[in-house]
Amino acid sequence: MTDYTGHVVIVTGGTKGIGRGCVEVFAGAGAHVVFCSHEPHGGSDLAAAVTACGPGRADFAVCDVADAGALTALVAGTAARLGRLDCLINNAGWHPPHKPIDDFTLDEFEALMRLNVTSVFVGCRAALPFLRRSRGSIINIASLVATIGQHYATTYVASKGAVLSFTKALAVDEARHGVRVNAVSPGNIDTPLWQEAVDQSADPRRTRADGEAAQPMGRMGTANEVGRLCLFLAAEATFTTGVDHIISGGAELGYGRKTRD
């Protein structure tokens, strides 16, 4: 395991799924991780469990990243309390149920952009004064579908495409400060959000089987695998910036059925 002892990391949306995987992996590497969620449920218990396992520690804070003031305060407060900031992982976000563009409202689209995109801008802007001092890094969680598209997911794909393009532009600007900015684009990762989609489908068993069969590797990825990639980017990939790191089990490779009945 990579040693990240003495470093301070912020993870948004850290109580479950990919965010939780990042919290566990970074704390397992010795980091002091501060993570947030807009829901209080489970956060304190997760922080206690992660800290007990060591060698790093985790602190939980309730924060709705769609609230720019709250997110800015979380970042600034963390850096002031712990004396530094080395890595920001912008993970918080949401995938709406699939439906055609005709059924999305403007309010729904704008709310999703505020959550999935504006929060990334706000988090980066708040963190950069501290990351420039530590010559740290930013990792923005995008999505494989930002590159390949997705059926009945125009709003979500647009939001993740924006995150990906923003990452590349910010990497150009911050290179002179020694701050690296990278994106991670997961494919099918077995998370509570994915399971929610399975449970809400007409045929959950078929939906899960299709999800697993979408990768040449024959399975979905895990949150821990995404967390380990993020740790590598933060601690080891010192000559990497502005890159989209796809972690998909090869889902985007080869031919497959594209027409729909």
Summarize the structure.
With 261 residues, the chain is of the alpha/beta class. It is 48% helix and 14% strand. Strand 2 (32-37), helix 2 and strand 3 form a beta-alpha-beta unit.
Could you describe the 3D structure shown?
The chain has nine helices and seven strands; from the N terminus they run E-H-E-H-E-H-E-H-E-H-H-E-H-H-H-E. The protein has a seven-stranded parallel β-sheet, sandwiched between helices. The longest helix is centred in the middle third of the chain and has 29 residues, at 106-134. With 261 residues, the protein is of the alpha/beta class. Helix 1 (17-28) crosses helix 9. It has one domain (8-186, 221-247): 3-Layer(aba) Sandwich (Rossmann fold). The mean pLDDT is 97.
Descriptive tags:
Rossmann fold; 261 residues; alpha/beta; 7 strands
